[in-house]
Amino acid sequence: MKITTHIFLLVAMILFASFNKQETGIQLQNLRCEMLVNPEGIDVVKPRLSWEIISPQRNVQQTAYQILVASSPEKLANNEADLWNSGKVNSDESIHVKYAGTTLKSKKRVFWKVKIWTNKGESAWSDNAFWSIGLLNYVDWKGRWIGLDRSFEWDNETQFSRLSARYFRKEFQAKKTIKQATVYIVGLGMYELYLNGQKVGDQVLAPVPTDYTKGVKYNTFDVTKLLQKGNNAIGTVLGNGRFYTMRQDYKPYKIKTFGYPKMLLNLDVEYTDGTKETISTDDSWKVTADGPIRTNNEYDGEEYDATKEMPNWNKVGFSDSNWLKAQLVQEAGGMFEAQMTENMKVMETIKPVSIKNLKDNTYILDMGQNMAGWLRLRVKGKKGDKVTLRFAETLQSTGELFVRNLRDAKVTDVYTLKGDGQEIWEPSFVYHGFRYVEITGFPTFPTIDDFDGRVVYDDMATIGEFETSDKTINQIYKNAYWGIRSNYKGMPVDCPQRNERQPWLGDRTTGAYGESFIFDNVRLYSKWLNDIEQAQKPDGSIPDVAPAFWRYYGDNVTWPGTYITIADMLYHQFGDKETIKKHYPSMKKWIDYMQEKYLVDGLITKDKYGDWCVPPESLALIHAKDPALQTDGILLASATYVRLLDVMQQFARLLNKPEDAKAYSKVAEEIKKAFNQKFLNTQKGQYSNGTVTANLLPLVYEMIPANEKTKVWNNIVNKILVDNKGHISTGVIGTQWLMRGLSQNGRADIAYKIASNRYYPSWGYMAENGATTIWELWNGDKANPEMNSGNHVMLLGDLIIWYYENIAGIKSAKDAVAFKKIIMKPEMIDGLNAGKASYHSMYGTIKSDWKKDGNKFQWNICIPANTKSLVYLPTNSLEKVTEGGKKVAGIEGIKFVKTEGKQLIVEVSSGNYSFSVN
Q1: Is the pLDDT of residue 22 over 50?
Q2: pLDDT tens digit sequence for 348-390
Q3: Which pLDDT band, with edges at 50, 70 and 90, does 889 fall under?
């Protein structure tokens, strides 16, 4: 058996060397602490600790654990737990165990390990893991904020802002031998940090964006190996990011601006003799804006002039006599917060598939994949030659870039050569959403070997895999994978290419749930809930975009309600109760606000977006104009509010707030009554005008009177199969429940028909017409380009959830969250002959691999240690089931539960199983 450990506020994996205790085969690994991959400088003094148990044996269940926490690895090695010894705790809890030791203070480094007892024996101690505490208090920060609060003659502060990067440097002397060195940096909008000429870390576009008036993130790095006794040099480059916004002097009523780039840095050095020193930012630092990065703007691109490079500017001995004295500037305003999420990183490098000569000195490069990131180039030429790269998702019929859908984003990078042999360059402070690149000014005949595509998103693990016997579904999954990671940018954004790239709440209401099967996105969404909370107004109002870079406070239900559904997802998928506890007061405040302001005669009367982006009656339209295709906004708002009240009841019960739960239930019942009086047409058996969304929401939210449910359900089926000829007709709201709603009511075949067809409108239609991501519109190849992104995720709805939970059959039980109890129940659908998926849960990897061949059904599954599963087999006869070639009766780890219709349910303990049904 093997144990993997974690330190947690949510779920990060820190892998350590595993070990074996031979007599049990138990191993522990993946120690996790408070949602960090790199646990440097967290600001949680009571982090949650988690571990995984891996064993080849079946039916391994933890019965007890013991945690040791020490102030040094030496003490921990001697089992001297001077900070906390939990003692032997009789419990099967292996995730989110809260640290309960000595109160931790700023800069404290903490080391820990764990051992467990199971029904199969006792493990050895895990390898050591660690975390460190950041700067918990404002007064822990030394020095001053520095910057340059002005532009220069080569800059341009208009609607299309051009502001050059700021370069800072400072030399200092370490007179003694260094034991430990840690740097804390707030670099706004973005920074690159160097010590003695070496870049610190492999992060890009750091730190993650926030509303800087509410909170600013700092990063922490162990830089001991980068410093030396004697003279040292610190260098930083500040880019603009979201701090100095992409559009200056433009729509100030809408677009929030923050000022010029600025930074605060502390470098703490501890010497071997026990003395300490802090080097911090102040006006002794030097700065210049006359460096090679001449402008950097997320919408418009980066321009780099290599003739302006300053060799060795970030090393000891560089002459900075012509640099300016750093200016002491106002701090950003927001509270200092340790960044508990991963920074972005170059996660993959891909090669182009072709390059074509369009006309004189103009080439079109095809990456073969719509992606988000940038291009790295290799070039030789004369000093002053300029290579211009312009980016787009699609091409015109002429072969030229199609850029109308990018609006006024210029999406252009320019590199000016220094003329010194082969030059390799990639930008530092921008990213693009693109498949195609127009290349002009290249001094030689370019080939695909001169370019690399650099795929950039948050440094999170891919934790899910999925495949079926259906090629269309597989392609849609691949497109979803690329689209989701394209839009992870320190926050979930809507698109990576045009002049928007905003964190719209409604795009992720259900999508985040599906994404959590593919990516370890728990820290990203935990951070996003903090962004939403910080954006909430004192009266309770929540915006449609958070952080509120755009001031869109529209007071609808369907977008701000994402605040609640994301918290629910984090609990259901990852067992994160603490996030609910933290945000419950703010969520309740919004619920009360909407109720007090918009609950009229039992209905919520405010909606803003409708069922956004239903397939319109004309392919040229963005939004449907036909009332028959639109769903009543009051219906959408009221039904969604009932759903949110139901979730809030669950939260209230979880937090032991019975009076709140009772109040939510009372309001929900009142709304249901008014809702049915207003919208239910009993003669037609439909709600309102009978759109699929109008009927689906009250169905899945259990609002329909029992005697009317069959008629409404038949109406949905008829609408899909007859009126829409088996195609989708829902927008963002309806698609959030479409696939699960169909399966839950016994028509997974209809869900499969929608999921696998390649005709308009469908996800398959996108793939059939060349999409390698997910479009913003069902008619994305024909619609008006004013709102026509080729890389969005909002129309995925609950599709990815359906893939994993209904096709693969991997689902967490509601009464034992985070996959402590797993429901293994794949849908048996005619035409779909195989499904295969894996998912790395908090407890370990879950696998499902099934195949149908005539009357034979073969299913291989893997259940993690310390969990159990209810397995649904497609037969009602135990005699027809074998496992590993043997009759299931008496096999260890398998227990018959019951038959349910045409299915046999068995309880399975941890281990690998191979079921056959004849």
Answers
A1: no
A2: 999 999 999 999 999 999 999 999 999 999 999 999 999 999 9
A3: confident
DSSP letters spanning 308-359: G--TTTTSTT---TTSEEPEE----SSEEEE--SPPEEEEEEE--SEEEEEE
Residue 474's identity, in one-letter code, is: N
Last residue of one domain, picked from the residues 800, 824, 856 = 800
**Burial level of 336, CB count in 10 A (0-12/13-18/19+)?**
buried
- Give the bridge partners for 166, in sequence order: 238
**Predicted structure pTM score:** 0.96
H helix or E strand, kind and range, residue 644: helix 633-654
Percent pLDDT > 90 in the chain is 93
Q: Please report, for the domain that includes residue 543, its CATH number.
A: 1.50.10.10
CA angle at 103 for the pair 97 and 106, rounded to the nearest 5°: 110
* Each residue's pLDDT tens digit, 569-625: 999 999 999 999 999 999 999 999 999 999 999 999 999 999 999 999 999 999 999
Q: Examine the fold and report which residue of 83, 111, 132 is the final residue of a domain before the chain moves on.
A: 132
**Distances, alpha carbon 179 to alpha carbons 108, 172, 193, 347, 479, in Å:** 15, 17, 21, 32, 48
Within a domain: residue 412? no
Rounded Cα distance between 855 and 833, Å, is 11
Spatial distance between the Cα atoms of 31 and 12, rounded to a whole number of angstroms: 8
Distance CA 269, CA 547 (A): 35
What lies within 8 Å, CB to CB, of 533 at 6+ separation is: 563, 583, 586
Q: Both 122 and 154 in a single domain? A: no
Q: Are residues 723 and 827 in the same domain?
A: no
Which contiguous run of DSSP H or E holds residue 763? Answer: helix 763-768
pLDDT band of residue 19 (cuts 50, 70, 90) is very low
Give, as one character, the DSSP assignment of residue 817.
T
Predicted confidence (pLDDT) at residue 38 exceeds the cutoff of 70:
no
**Phi, psi values for residue 180, rounded to 5°:** -150, 140
Q: Are 389 and 413 in contact (CB under 8 A)?
A: yes
Q: What are phi and psi of 406, to 5 degrees?
A: -90, 0
Mean pLDDT calculated for residue range 757-761: 96
Beta strands in 802-880 (DSSP E): 811-812, 821-824, 834-841, 844-853, 856-873
Q: Are 387 and 414 in contact (CB under 8 A)?
A: yes
CATH code for the domain of 885: 2.60.420.10
Tokens for 103, please give them: 């109160």
| Among the listed residues 204, 150, 138, 143, the one whose alpha carbon sits nearest the alpha carbon of residue 170 | 143
pLDDT of residue 8 exceeding 50, the answer is no
Q: Could you tell me the two tokens for 387?
A: 């290579």
Residue 286 CA, distance from chain mean position: 38
The predicted structure's pLDDT at residue 26: 67
Kindly report whether the peptide bond that precedes residue 207 is cis, defined as omega within 30 degrees of 0.
yes
Same domain, 281 and 261: yes
Tell me what pLDDT residue 39 has.
Answer: 75
Residue 411 lies in a domain: no
Tokens representing residue 302 in the block: 């980066």
Tokens of 14: 């820190």
Structure tokens belonging to residue 841: 């849960």
Closest C-alpha among 769, 748, 749, 774 to residue 758: 769
pLDDT of 11 above 60: no
Per-residue pLDDT of 112-151, as tens digits, reads 999 999 999 999 999 999 999 999 999 999 999 999 999 9
The residues with which 28 forms a beta bridge, in sequence order, are: 3, 53
650, containing H or E segment: helix 633-654
Which is more confident, 41 or 706?
Answer: 706
Q: What is the mean pLDDT of the chain?
A: 94
Distance of CA 233 to the CA centre of its chain: 36
β-pairing, 84-85 vs 89-90, is unpaired
Distance (Å, whole) CA 274 – CA 180: 10
* Cβ-based burial of 290 (10 A; exposed 0-12, middle 13-18, buried ≥19): middle
806 in any annotated domain:
no
